[in-house]
Amino acid sequence: MTTSSAAKPAEKPWLKSYPSVVPPEIGPLPAEAIGELLVNACRKYTGQPAFTCMGKSLSYSDMERLSSAFGAWLQAKGLAKGARVAIMMPNVLQYPVVMMGVMRAGLTVVNVNPLYTPRELEHQLKDSGAEAIVILENFAATLQACVAKTNVKHVVVASMGDMLGTVKGAIVNLVVRRVKKMVPAWSLPGHVSFNAAMKEGAARTFKPAQVASDDVAFLQYTGGTTGVSKGATLLHRNVLANVAQNVLWLESAFIKKPRPPHMVYVCPLPLYHIYALTVNALTGMHLGAQNILIPNPRDIPGFVKELQQYPINVFPGLNTLFNALLNNSEFAKVDFKPLLLTFGGGMAVQRPVAERWKKLTGCVVSEGYGLSETSPVATANRFDADEFSGTIGLPIPSTEIAIRDEDGKDLPIGEVGEICIRGPQVMAGYWNRPDETAKVMAADGFFKSGDMGFMDDKGYIKIVDRKKDMILVSGFNVYPNELEEVVAQHPGVLEVAAIGVPDEHSGEVPKLFVVKKDPNLTAEALHEYCRQNLTGYKRPRHIEFRTDLPKTNVGKILRRELRG
User: Fold this and answer.
1) Over the stretch 271-312, which tens digit does the pLDDT of each residue have?
2) Cβ proximity of 239 and 219 under 8 Å
3) Fewer CB within 10 Å, N side or C side of the chain?
């Protein structure tokens, strides 16, 4: 049976598991365009802090004024409506200012990972047709290596200390340049400094652009795990719908705990990533929250010091980050009483990590799921749950999930198939790639995620793995997530990743890459542990110890790099 485009509520088992405070559908969008949403928030919450970084805060009224100045500078450069502006910065105060300015000027943001190589940056700038880029000087040498081969005409170079005040900013810039050995070894002809662009923009009059809900807001490039990186085309209405969905789902957090007068979010995940962009920056601003920006979450001791300074209510993160914090002795000294909810996404949250998190913080990790192509949130666990569910939760309001087989047919409850998603947050398609769009969009509007999972009779969904990561052992499917979750429970293991490697007898066999917590851990001990906890064909045949595992800048373990 293929789900019709007008699925009846009776066909949506997840609705019976919904919190009573959450409706099944979102209402009208909170604004016509993202710029309008953010300006409305600035006028509603004026003097309250919006973003804080390295001890410096910008209020909502600051955000309106500064984004207006940057928007005016962009307009003065003659960028036509819909022109693409790349942003290549970590979590610094300039990011939300620039992003909001671009939105208000009726242009499109192209989010760029600052750790890209010149080859990766060149591809993204050329593919998107970006005409302008705002980049932190730490990464300017990367741009210098490829900018001549792109359409980029306007380059704005920001420095870490630009928005931290004259004295503190100068000290921060001096330290950063010394540590990074950045005696400007780069040269970008015609570039302007961020401060100069802001000064020029502030002297001009900003003219609000007419932006429609069907205009392109973001080109959000996928990680390229299936080949060349593609731009997910997110319209204003896609992202605004996801903001509305997140706001409704958040109500479940206040069933058992009182709503704080002003919510404080921590933002350790990069704002150029769709997860933090929507959940922290956009939803946070819409709700008048304060976002504590963490420029370098890999500096765990520094991150913990920041956490000790603020009453954090909302903690979006992912498994590797939670695990790293739990293994830092100072983290236990943080005051967790204000913590309302911990939201896990980006990768599977492992049960041992979730259980340690709850024991220490008193807060259940509520795992959710989404992709760049879904703006991103598609499913989430209830925020009033008493226990970690080990699932990615329920489809959020106005979202349908179908589990389908290779032929696109809906599978019964409990059967593993591809997770397919339909809802107002699903992208318009891949930028200038109708061929790739056709591969992932079904005729009835469902997006094929490439993730394998099943739904239980209560509507909760469990991911078993990415299609391409599945290991085929003598015809049996072995899912790396399952192996990793089992092995992660061994007390001597800090981190683990599983891949399939060729084997002449069974086609493939599992191989583990392990970072030790206990230096005395041996491969023999782990093999024995796996014999006790995994059936024969699932057991790893090879174990390799590493000092660390390759990860994306967001912290996802890169299995493809381990495959070599």
Assistant:
1) 999 999 999 999 999 999 999 999 999 999 999 999 999 999
2) no
3) C
The answer, yes or no, to whether the previous bond of 208 is cis (omega within 30 of 0) is no
Which neighbouring-strand residues pair with 158?
136
pLDDT of residue 177: 84
Contacts of 407 (CB under 8 A, 6+ apart): none
Q: What pLDDT is stored for residue 184 in this prediction?
A: 60
pLDDT of 183 above 70? no
Q: How many whole angstroms separate alpha carbon 327 and alpha carbon 175?
A: 28
Read off the DSSP letter of residue 312: -
Residues β-bridged to residue 342: 315, 365
Cα–Cα nearest to 234, from 377, 368, 120 = 377
In this prediction, residue 396 carries a pLDDT of: 98
By C-alpha distance, which of 361, 280, 323, 383 is closest to 556?
Answer: 323
Q: How confident is the model at residue 472 (pLDDT cuts 50, 70, 90)?
A: confident
User: What domains lie within the chain, and their CATH numbers?
Assistant: 18-29+235-466 (3.40.50.12780), 44-211 (3.40.50.980), 471-563 (3.30.300.30)
Bridging pattern class, strands 471-473 and 476-478:
antiparallel
Structure tokens at 447: 């997006």
Among 19-23, 118-122, 271-275, 371-375, the range scoring the smallest mean pLDDT is 118-122
Q: Please answer whether residues 92 and 53 qualify as being in contact, where contact means their C-beta atoms are separated by less than 8 angstroms.
A: yes
What values do phi and psi take at 495, rounded to 5? Answer: -140, 155
Tell me the pairing of strands 108-111 and 216-221: parallel
SS (H, E, C) 197-265: HHHHHHCCCCCCCCCCCCCEEEEEECCCCCCCCCEEEEEHHHHHHHHHHHHHHHHHHHCCCCCCCCCEE
- How far apart CA 145 and CA 117 sit, in angstroms, is 9
pTM above 0.90, yes or no: no
pLDDT at position 330 is 97
d(CA 339, CA 362) in angstroms, rounded, equals: 8
Look at strands 507-516 and 542-545 and give their pairing.
Answer: parallel
CA distances from 319 to 134, 169, 383, 551 (A): 30, 33, 17, 12
Residue 174, SS3 per DSSP: helix
Helix pair angle (236-250, 34-45), 10° resolution: 40
Residue 189 pLDDT class (50, 70, 90 cuts): confident
Cα 547 → chain centroid: 26
Two tokens at 285? 């601003």
